[in-house]
Backbone:
């Protein structure tokens, strides 16, 4: 009897651990498994195990990518000097979020549904990124020093993982991207798929020393 009780407790314990460890993309804005074009799958519109699209720095990418040319952020006080056309993981986000490529356009499926036409429609950033937080530039100790109002990403804790820094937890090869603020898989279950809840501007204050 005692063994049975322990067995049941172990089972409950392990189920609890599994449900957190496997993340929460299910039911998020990025779960298209309920759509008739996704073959009932979650990952497929974005990733495929075989024969996907080969994009630099992209994890097994399956979605059609945008050919748009973007208007970049600029300001008199911006110190970053290598702001480029969105690349790496930001290009992947914009393959749906600039509104030029259909959400359901991926290998083996021609798309017809565009971002502004489903959900709230607010996810359409367009190709003018000059009114959005800059992405696709290097954020390193030198930039922090030059700016004076940024934490040093190589030593400032992100608060996301034990011992993790801004650089290790939020940057991609030392660069700021869309996924420096968002988790596409909704791992942290914050509003707007944020890496860090922005209550009290906590997300902003992780990098900006204001
Ligand atoms: C809406 C598009 C989208 C969906 C759906 C999606 N992903 Fe991703 N995934 C991305 C993007 C974009 C990246 C790169 C950005 C990043 O790593 O944060 C990524 C990165 C990854 C990575 C490499 C980085 C890491 O987090 O380990 C893995 C592995 C991955 N995805 C697996 C999956 C699996 C498995 C599913 C389905 C359960 C899935 N993804 C669903 C867009 C998606
Ligand atoms: C396969 C297409 C696709 C890709 C790729 C994709 N998204 Fe989305 N995303 C969507 C759709 C569709 C919605 C719902 C939009 C709406 O309601 O207007 C959405 C919603 C969101 C939202 C709003 C979530 C909320 O709860 O309010 C955020 C934030 C977001 N996406 C960020 C990203 C980021 C960052 C990436 C890349 C790391 C990315 N997305 C990649 C299709 C995509
Ligand atoms: C510096 C942090 C940061 C970066 C970088 C960033 N976002 Fe966001 N994003 C936010 C925050 C915070 C919100 C919450 C809603 C708001 O304040 O507009 C948000 C909201 C969104 C939404 C939901 C729109 C809405 O009005 O609900 C989408 C979609 C989105 N971001 C996509 C992207 C994409 C795509 C990129 C890269 C081109 C990106 N974000 C880069 C911080 C960021
Ligand atoms: C992952 C780190 C990170 C996060 C999180 C972040 N930022 Fe930034 N932000 C930067 C970096 C780096 C720059 C580039 C600064 C420069 O080059 O002068 C920047 C630039 C800016 C600028 C433009 C500065 C200028 O001189 O034109 C503003 C304004 C800004 N961020 C506000 C925000 C707000 C508001 C939030 C929260 C919603 C936020 N940031 C979140 C890293 C971050």
Residues:
């Amino acid at each position: 009897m005692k063994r049975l009780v322990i067995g049941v407790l172990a089972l409950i314990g392990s189920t609890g651990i599994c449900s957190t460890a496997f993340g929460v993309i299910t039911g998020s804005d990025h779960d298209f498994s309920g759509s008739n074009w996704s073959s009932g799958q979650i990952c497929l519109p974005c990733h495929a195990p075989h024969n996907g699209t080969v994009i630099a720095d992209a994890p097994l990418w399956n979605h059609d990518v945008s050919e748009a040319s973007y208007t970049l952020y600029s300001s008199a006080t911006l110190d970053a000097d290598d702001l480029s056309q969105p690349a790496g993981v930001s290009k992947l986000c914009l393959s749906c979020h600039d509104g030029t490529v259909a959400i359901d356009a991926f290998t083996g499926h021609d798309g017809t549904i565009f971002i502004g036409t489903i959900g709230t429609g607010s996810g359409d950033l367009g190709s003018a990124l000059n009114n959005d937080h800059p992405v696709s530039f290097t954020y390193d100790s030198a930039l922090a020093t030059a700016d004076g109002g940024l934490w040093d990403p190589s030593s400032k804790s992100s608060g996301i993982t034990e011992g993790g820094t801004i650089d290790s937890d939020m940057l991609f090869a030392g660069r700021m991207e869309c996924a420096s603020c968002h988790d596409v898989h909704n791992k942290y279950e914050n509003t707007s798929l944020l890496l860090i809840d922005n209550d009290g501007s906590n997300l902003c204050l992780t990098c900006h020393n204001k």
